[in-house]
Amino acid sequence: MLIQPLIQQLNALRLRGMAAALEQQGASKDRSALSFEDRLGLMIQHELTDRASARMAQRLCWAKLPQGAVLEDLNTHAVRGLAPAALAQVRDLGWIAEHLNVLITGPTGVGKSFLACALAHAACRADYAVRFFRLPRLVDEFTRAHALQKRSSLLKQLAKADLLVLDDFGLTPLSDQTKRDLLEILDDRYDRRSTILTSQLPIDQWHTYLADPTLADAILDRLVHNAYRLTLKGDSMRKQKTVDAKTGARAKNTVSI
């Protein structure tokens, strides 16, 4: 029986993984050594892998992570002040199923955004829907949404994400409207979805930063009390990378006599 028409039919049915596997089997000299069940099983496995890869690519596209950080690349030996037990609690992602939050604080350059992106990437691999925003960019999104009268639509999109990452909280003062938008986001997500928030400000300064006592109480009540807290310490890794690069350049340009 000709294989090419079967490959075309599988592609027409959008079974592209199975079609590719069948094409590979057709080109293999060892295909006769496999039983029908084995060949079918390999085709199905190929289809499942292909769909998982496509779903992962779609998750990452929707998440819009700013860097390709993964937990496997996390340098746990760096001086970050991270307790191994605390890191282990968030690495397994059980907090997402429990609809809890993760708050990552520390000075600039210690890896807050890297850790947040690595956790978000792990969530994508676990088939969770993820969205990432630097808070200033999210403010811009809401400004456009208000102008186009699409605020409700944006809130609904954010509410659907299993994990929402808000990076750089506390960099600049927030307008009253932004505080109300933030409250709406967190109210929609409270006990339903999970949020990661990174900030240079210690958590005990967030109430003062938000200024309005009523809105601050409401926001922090939905964000802080059901969250894991990771406090990073140490010198800026960006600064260290610059120093290392300069040192390496000087060593490379040194002529041995």
Shape: elongated
CATH class of the largest domain: Alpha Beta
The structural domain count equals 2
CATH superfamily of the largest domain: P-loop containing nucleotide triphosphate hydrolases
Strand content: 5-15%
Question: What's the overall average pLDDT, rounded?
Answer: 86
Can you tell me the CATH topology of the largest domain? Rossmann fold
Q: Give the SSE order as H and E letters.
A: HHHHHEHEHHEHEHHEH
Q: Nearest-angstrom radius of gyration?
A: 24 Å
Looking at the overall shape, the CATH architecture of the largest domain is: 3-Layer(aba) Sandwich
Number of helices: 12
Task: State the share of residues found in helices, binned by percent.
Answer: 55-70%
Q: Tell me the span between the first and last alpha carbons.
A: 73 Å
Characterize the biggest β-sheet: 5 strands, parallel
> What are the segments in which pLDDT stays under 50 over at least 5 consecutive residues?
none
Strand order of the largest sheet: 2-3-4-1-5
Structural class: alpha/beta
Number of strands: 5
